[in-house]
User: Fold this.
Amino acid sequence: MEDYVVEMRHITKQFGSYKANNDISLQLRKGEILALLGENGAGKSTLMGMLSGLLEPTEGEILINNKVVRMDNPRDAKRLGIGMVHQHFMLIPAFSVLENIILGDEPTKATRIDYKKAASDIEELAEKYHLDIDVHAKVRDITVGMQQRVEIMKALYRKANIFIFDEPTAALTPQEIDQFIKILRALAAEGNSVIFITHKLKEIKEVADRCVVIRMGKVIETVQVAETKEETLAEMMVGRKVNFAVEKEETDKTKTVLAVNDLNVEVHGLPKVKDLNLTVHSGEIVGVAGVDGNGQSELIEAITGLRKIKKGTVELKGKFLQNLGARKISEAGIGCIPEDRQNVGLILPFTIAENLVLKSYHKKPASQHGLLNYKKINEIGRQLIKSFDIRSQSEKELAGDLSGGNQQKVIVAREISANPDLLIAANPTRGVDIGAIEYIHEKIIEQRNTGHAVLLISFELDEILKLSDRIVVMHEGQIVGEIDPRHTSSEELGLMMAGKTPIGQEG
Amino acid sequence: MHTKSLKGLTIPLISVLAGFIVGAILMLIFGYDPIQNYQNLLKGSLGGIYSIGETLRNMISLILTALGFAVASKAGFFNIGGPGQYLIGWFGAIVFTLKFSHLPAVILIIGALLCGALAGGLWSMIAGVLRAYFGTSEVITTIMLNYIILYLVNFAVKSWLASKGSDSSPNITTKANLNTPFLQHITDNSTFNWGFFIALAVVGLVWFYFKKTKSGFEIQAVGLNESASQYAGVNVKRTIIIAMLISGLLAGLGGAIDGLGNFENISVSNNLPNVGYNGMAVALLAAGNPIGIIFSALLFSALQIGGLSISVYSNTPSEIVDIVIASIIFFVGIKYAFELMTKKGWLKRKNKVVKGGAEK
Assistant:
């Protein structure tokens, strides 16, 4: 019998009559990186919930270092050396990195917390694992990437040797992802074992040794990553052939839909967008590539009327829209899939139907004479749920109860059904599963093919490269170059995003 | 709007029960008979036509101040200005009635109520404007506005309405009194007045406002998610101001009705009217639900009115009622602890669904 660090045997987890996990077995070896691949709702989080002590299995047993264990709560799991890094970080923003790391396990000298010892312990670990963290910074001041490293450090500090990551790269920029992957390798090299939940195939190919594919609560297959192609993984996950290629028809790109001239936006007196010029034509997808924080969010907010424009113009089909306010701008024909779907795109405690009319509740047919017509609203809801394939129980289900992919579909349905001349899509597929990605991409392409204009902002270079007709690169509030996606690579794009040697620069 | 009403009842019912139990335990400790006292309480509040009339009358301002608080909370604001808005509403109604006493009764009453309500609304709107344009915390501003209006009203009553040497305004003309002889006659001379029916109608209006109107929808949207509302094109600043305006209108109307139907004049006072604070408690117990506010106001009103008779029939101090009321609010306040406990129990029964766990 082989030695396993973790072995889960015939695990079944039942919620009422619903089997979230059905007879799942998996093994994790020492020093191994195991990927857990599956769509949203496949049962990955449930499975890891049991391994981290949040849930108890209905049937089956868990072995840690060849011993059957029972974990009643996350503390038991921690004691067994299991460290979980959640998708949403559990940090206290007002505390320093150091305080966050030691919270709950403070080393004491007499009765006082021994910060010196803690800091030196942490710095030692940081060096060993190449974790670049600033222990004295406040968590609210550090980047998402560093917050994740703090979470990893929290687990290391508690002497974890089994690491579970839940969608670790969902919120990271390409550079941060590279750094994260290096950390994973360092963890494994030191003899730790890693399980990471993901639906990004590229990362699995890059770093994982083996991959367990889960679909509808069952293990479909466990494969050696080196011997398996990305397409095969995707097919196993979704259960059917996945369409990776997009069909772009020839379109007429002569009409200018959006013209942004000399745009300047300031935030708290600091320039975020500087003298920016940008045009998007009908039948065209223009991709904006750039590292997070280089003015992309401010650009979108300025165009859609959420942020004041200091100088410059925004023109949609010849009409000037700058500083008109969000409602007038959206009614003029600009739709927007916002970056932050849960905090901006949706009102989670509202129903799906209410969210679907969030931009049209004030006019017929959703309302008349100041009164809402719920019959019509729910009818619109049912119709859009059907035509945009939103998986839900009914139009009266709360948006907050939907999976990420379906939440995003609600937004896509709302924005596209308004038939906008220009659709702005900001990270439209961040954190959603492959099925939904495929669907959302299809819808964006469909907009383009039917002669609408699309402005795509994304941190996923692959997405930008795949969808765009033209790519502009944004750096420090300016457009530093324009590239033809057919004649470039992620490497070249990455360099330009870092502000280096703009190749083939145009206006 | 979307709460499951049956499940929503558990917490208030448990809280009320727990409040009564705490009261009973205290009475036992200090040697009073809880069963006897609770019986007297029931008798004193609902045991006869007169006491029912008093209890229902006492509900009026509780309902209206509670509605006011609930409207502001729907927009995400904690309006502590109820007492001040109630006071200025009371003041406004009395001033109108005194100055226009020659008007026919119906017009005089309607004018006085509108004047009181509007005064409350405008007063509360100050906090709304400060919040919308300067981000000033409405908790601070409404508390401060309470004190400003308390002393302004005292000043105005003393130097303008009251005759020399008096601390009260003259009484209003009887034709403006909402406590009409007919109502006195059928309720054994209680202070029950027409304002009760106005309050019930306003409950219906507020319910309708949130359920059916565009403006009510906007208030809830802003209260639940301000950024999403802004993105969706809602005028957030205007919505905040409207919410605070309506909130103050309702509390002000409560004051106006009490002014015309109960007090019949206005006096200098050292304290802010308690009803403004009690209204917050009523709204909290009802979780802001307009229909729930009727029942919750009935309970609080019965406790207050019945509490008066506790000390009449026995030597138990009537303050025991305040302890019961405070305990109920305390238990409502720790509903999060209750929720956590139920959730934990749920987890033990292995039914907890984690994120991404059991989506169909």
User: Anything to note?
Assistant: Chain A has two domains: 6-238, 256-497.
